[in-house]
Amino acid sequence: MNYLKPAAVAVASISMSTAPLHAGGVAQPLMEPEVIVAESAAASSGGFVVPLLLLVILAAAASSSGGSSVPRE
């Protein structure tokens, strides 16, 4: 039974000395650069369509508010 203690110490020292070998090397990990995709711009007419429609609606409202549609007697 006296041989178990030195054998256990030998096994423990070998396992502790090989643990850093399995942990990985000293080299930096290779990371691929992230690809950034720029979104394409929307149609160029999108910036003035809404204000143009608002202007048309206001012009139609202003032209129809001048008089009543029912003639007075």
From TrEMBL:
Keywords annotated in UniProt: Membrane, Signal, Transmembrane, Transmembrane helix
Signal sequence coordinates: 1-23
Positions of transmembrane segments: 42-62
UniProt name for this protein: Ferrochelatase
